[in-house]
Design brief:
By secondary structure, the chain is of the alpha+beta class. It has four domains: about 200 residues, no CATH class; about 80 residues, Arc Repressor Mutant, subunit A; about 80 residues; about 70 residues, Arc Repressor Mutant, subunit A. Strands 3-2-5-6 form a four-stranded mixed β-sheet. Helix 5 packs across helix 7. About 15% of the residues have low confidence.
């Protein structure tokens, strides 16, 4: 086929850089917004933190014109003489921006700006410190540190002894053997928290029970050790009758031993390590207060940061305007300055639009789920999907999804993810539509109120919910139970 030229028309929809920037900002939670602003401040010297400025939103875009008589003869230079900088050097930048959500005298502003950060030693640092009690020589100290470094965040040593020996040979240039490593592992297992450096859950529980037995040996603890050591599989499956028969114990003795076992820590390192992570602190994006039956919504003031255009950059433009001689280098500098100022304005405007969109969306959610925010009762939550909020706000569903993603709201009844308020609907026998949250709440209440010696099966839960007017299939009950982290009936059974 011969090559040919043709003229075609196409209709394309493209997002502007400003729209892309706004979409990315919408997804950023309040906890990470400061980091995003810091990055922008480092990249754009025309953007500064300080007193907010009110800028013109309807400024005109500059267009290139034809070369004039002062242009270079090669025709490669734009006409910088046509640059209009009047809108960049106005004196209206001292007014307070309208995207501020709270007055400076708001009593909670300082508290909300404060991020609690705990400064402590890490879990592995605590173990390294305890190595001092072993009085090891330099060689043994290196081996012990290698073992400690192989312990995961839950406190388990999941690496094989032979692999640790190989690590010492290749990484530390130390020739060791499995017997030497095992000896040090036994010593590290005596550290606190009890149960550390175990290779399995069974070993972890045995270490804790043996520590208890050394401090205060009792018949109940010895029975617990026997259960975990010899009948761990039966214990995990809750076959207590078989354990009672094999160990020739009474029901009371087995019950007391099981009670001790259930109080042990299956993740001795997880509790410490989890408490040291700053990510455990949730910074709410919204606050909802009940003022005598009237809900009041406020946005975290970090979402309205103090940003302004650099005075130095505006001063450089004013100096250029006052100057009589404008050579090519000066004009190029002016174009660069204008680009940076435009980028700063776009970013400030994106922050403003982000704040407006967040408030608009959260206000729609608050009105839609008003009964919950007034009472805190999950059973009154209405079925709500992204489309419902999109229709109320006039926003696109994808925009509502970005707002709901990774955002939190603080209420009088606790802090919840925005996704918590979105749920599917189901129809009761009377034709009334209810949220799946209501079904899950009733399911939780049924499980909490069941006889633990004869827990309810999924079929029995289905019958009870059907009797209450909720016609749900058994497989749906099983799905809701798994979502609520409720184990099957056999594993909920108590001796």
């Amino acid at each position: 086929m011969a090559l040919s030229q043709g003229l075609h028309q196409k209709l394309l929809q493209k997002l502007s850089p400003q729209q892309i920037q706004l979409m990315k900002l919408l997804q950023v939670p309040t906890a990470f917004l400061e980091e995003r602003i810091k990055e922008e401040l480092e990249e754009n010297p025309a953007l500064e933190q300080g007193t907010e400025e009110l800028y013109q939103e309807d400024y005109k875009e500059e267009t290139d014109s034809e070369l004039n008589e002062d242009a270079d003869p090669d025709g490669s230079e734009e006409d910088y003489d046509q640059v209009d900088i009047s809108e960049y050097v106005t004196d209206s930048d001292d007014d307070t921006a309208d995207y501020r959500t709270k007055d400076e005298t708001y009593q909670g502003s300082e508290d909300q700006n404060f991020t609690p950060v705990r400064s402590e030693n890490s879990f592995h640092d605590l173990l390294i410190q305890q190595l001092v009690m072993l009085n090891l020589d330099d060689r043994a100290q290196i081996i012990a540190e290698q073992i400690v470094g192989s312990i995961d965040d839950d406190g388990y040593l999941r690496r094989e002894t032979s692999a640790i020996v190989n690590d010492l040979a290749f990484l530390q240039n130390i020739e060791s053997n499995e017997e030497e490593v095992e000896t040090l592992i036994d010593q590290i297992q005596q550290f606190e928290p009890s149960g550390i450096c175990a290779r399995s859950l069974q070993e972890c529980l045995l270490i804790q029970l043996r520590h208890k037995s050394k401090r205060k040996p009792t018949k109940t603890i010895n029975a617990a050790i026997a259960i975990i050591d010899r009948y761990f599989e039966e214990f995990s499956r809750k076959h207590f009758e078989k354990i009672q028969k094999q160990l020739e114990l009474t029901s009371e003795e087995v019950r007391a031993a099981v009670e001790i076992i259930t109080k042990l820590n299956p993740k001795p390192g997880g509790t410490i390590e989890g408490g040291l992570k700053n990510e455990n602190y949730i910074i709410p994006d919204f606050y909802i207060f009940n003022n005598n039956g009237v809900l009041e919504l406020t946005l975290h003031n970090r979402n309205a940061p103090d940003l302004k255009i650099s005075e130095d950059y505006k001063e450089m433009l004013m100096q250029y305007e006052k100057g009589s001689k404008k050579d090519k280098r000066q004009k190029e500098a002016v174009v660069f300055i204008k680009q940076k100022i435009d980028a700063a304005r776009w970013f400030i405007d994106a922050i403003k639009q982000r704040q407006t969109t967040l408030l608009l969306t959260m206000n729609a959610i608050m009105e839609y789920q008003q009964a919950f925010f007034l009472t805190g009762d999950e059973t009154v939550l209405r079925p709500m999907i992204l489309k419902d909020i999109a229709e109320i706000t006039g926003l696109d569903i994808s925009t509502v999804s970005r707002v709901a993603n990774s955002k939190f709201v603080q209420t009088e009844f606790g802090t919840q993810r925005l996704k918590f308020f979105f749920s599917e609907s189901m129809t009761k026998s009377g034709g009334e539509e209810v949220s799946t949250h209501e079904v899950k709440k009733i399911l939780t209440d049924l499980v909490e109120g069941e006889d633990k010696q004869n827990p309810l099966s999924d079929d029995q839960l289905t019958e009870l919910l059907t009797a209450k007017g909720y016609h749900i299939a058994r497989r749906t009950i099983a799905k809701y139970r798994e979502q609520l982290n409720i184990p099957v009936a056999r594993l909920r059974k108590s001796f």
